[in-house]
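Appendix B, example 12.
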Amino acid sequence: MKKPKKILMINFGGIGDEILFLPAISSLKKEYPEAKITLVLEPRSKSVKNLTNLIDDVICVDIKGKHKYIELLKFLFKARSGKFDMVFSSGANNLIPLLLFLTGITYRYGFESGVLSRILLTKAVKLNKNQYASFMYHELVTPVTDYKTDYPEIDAGEVEKETDSVLIHPGVSKMSVVRHMIKTWTPEIWAELVQRVLATGKKVYLIGGPDDKECIEKITEIAGDAPNFTNLYGTTKNIMDLARLTKKAEVLICSDSAPMHIGVGVGTKTLALFGPTDEKKLIPNNEKYIAIKNNCDCRPCLWDKRQTTCEELKCLKINLDEVVKLI
């Protein structure tokens, strides 16, 4: 096989999914440093390109929009005219191999999903979902490289740590709430945590995205104008601003959402709230990245056992004293 000059990688999902995909891209870049890598993703996640220098170009495909079939046809045209040498796709749908075959790209890699994957792919990789998602994605590139990149790496530049600083990002996407996938505390509980952390003498910074406006307002209303408490909502203009703030903080506290993956990517100690979702699949298992969880017998349930969360939400009933101890 000749060294590829152009590589196409396909990974649909939110910004968190794209960050988790970075180690696979990193290992390919180490194996083929001269190759140009194009990432195919959903429009909502295109800002991942601003977090890394690994991605040369992006192609946006709105696969969840009203015109998804037209979008896929446009993508096929771009893929066929792009003169790519290799293509990798993280999709597990049994029609993904056909999509890759239609790109006309010679070397095609994806997860094993049935007969088509074994016939149409250069190599069908066995899919193992019971592991950290970055490890799962990384297995896609193992047929062509022995390099192993464990965790996402985000290039946020030189940022000096602020001693005794705690960055709190309480939110999740509104899409999760609309779909009744409750993965975070109420604003009242977050406000109580803010007050308890402030009582330890730490400096607390509150941050959130556009979806978190109401939550942030409620927290600040309860917490008040306490010393060492700063509301930074609205000060970040883009995802790189959030990455730099996260790298500056000594500790990040957040829910299971994109900021958690940013915390891992910049190497900041991260305490992530896990209710119904499976921490083993979403956060590295080491002392620097810690899942805040209630070991009730019904979790994890979301996605594996059910598509929405239950009404009782026992999994989110966590002793805040234990959280403060972790800080």
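DSSP finds twelve helices and twelve strands in the chain. The mean pLDDT is 92.
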